[in-house]
Design brief:
Elements (H helix, E strand, L loop, with lengths): L1 H14 L7 H4 L6 H8 L12 E5 L2 E7 L4 E10 L2 E12 L2 E6 L6 E6 L3 E3 L22 E6 L2 H5 L15
Antiparallel strand pairs: 1-2, 1-8, 2-3, 3-4, 4-5, 5-6, 6-7, 7-8
Length: 170
Amino acid sequence: MKRLLLGVLAPLLTTCAPSTPDTAVANGTPPDLETAAIAAGVISDPANSDITGLYARDTDRICVVPDRLNYRIGAFVDYGDRQGCAGSGTVARVGEKLQVSFAEAPGCDFEARFEGDRIAFPGRLPDACEKLCSRRASFAALDVGRLSESVSEASTLRDPKGRLLCAGDR
């Protein structure tokens, strides 16, 4: 009798079991905050975002436009009193990493971060990047948010001397 009752109740008990949790929770580790925010739609997924656009914060600017193989990048910071930096070059994206190379300053090659709607330069840059700056200005720790995804807006960004920073093939 017990076997008959167990045979009838066992399938019913398995259908009442809670639904299967996410893989991260099933492994005993909750998802990190960024993963949870992406899943909830609070922030955009950097892996699915194009880097093209115009980025800014205060007087700091970055433009990124498509080029034949990768992208062109231009950046400037303006501290006032003729202190600032300006440069143009190329950028290649590998996931959330951006390989930046400023052609005007050989050796000014570094890895920046792309966070969906933000670009952040590292806090320490190669010494060669100083060639792009005047006086005590620096591109180090430049952190800007996206203003526009428009190629035409990004391609019109000029440095304080009026030079187009993202000009080139599109």
